[in-house]
What we know:
- The protein is an alpha+beta fold.
- It contains 4 helices and 11 strands; from the N terminus they run E-H-H-E-E-E-H-E-E-E-H-E-E-E-E.
- Helix 1 packs antiparallel against helix 4 (172-186).
- This is Cache domain-containing protein.
- It comes from Aeromicrobium camelliae.
Amino acid sequence: MNTTGEHSDRGLRRAARDIIALTEPLFDALEALAEACRRDVDLTLARPFDDVASWAALAPAAERVLVTHQLATGVGAAVIGEESMDGTASMAWWIRRDGHVSRKRHVTNPQSDSFYDVRHLRWFRVPMTTGRPALFGPYVDSWGTDDITLTAAIALVVDDRRVGVVAADLDTRRYLDLAEGVLRETEVSALLDDEDRVVVSSDPSIDTGSRIASLGHDVTGRETIDELNWSLARLDDQSPKRS
């Protein structure tokens, strides 16, 4: 965590620790899934926008994530066949519905109007480019479930080279409810993503997705959550209470 600004305070630091605690176990699980990819999946078999037969070997590890971590509703991995982001891609994904885990198939035909081209999605592109873990959303998963989605993602590294991404979709409503509870307890105004958009706020007049700069409030304190590439903000009408 990195504190910025003279108005940063104990409430912001506590909120940052609590937000990290919500997601740290899931990122640990993604690291374990990345290790299973390296161990069980023949990543050299990736073919253009096609299934890799050995993806099936990842199913037990993916199921463990979904059964163990109730915030996760979907999990999987995607790899590219070349170092360039223009390279071809292959992907495997599992979802949990009504307590049952199953493989979700995406349209992998580039000629289809429903083609799911993972290479151009932020949850894939950003970890591939930066190598840093991150959370993305809430956003509408137009090419996946059509639901409002939060996605946690980390780079998949093999021999010091980023070859893909391991990721999980979160139960968005549950995560936002938990995060909002953290903000209310610590009197912090908003949780912000890497584009300074509001993920969730303790102020009902502030909508998710709003840019912090457009809200008409001064930011009186900010805490950067390096582990998520997000930050917390205290706005001028929610300054710390004085005793």
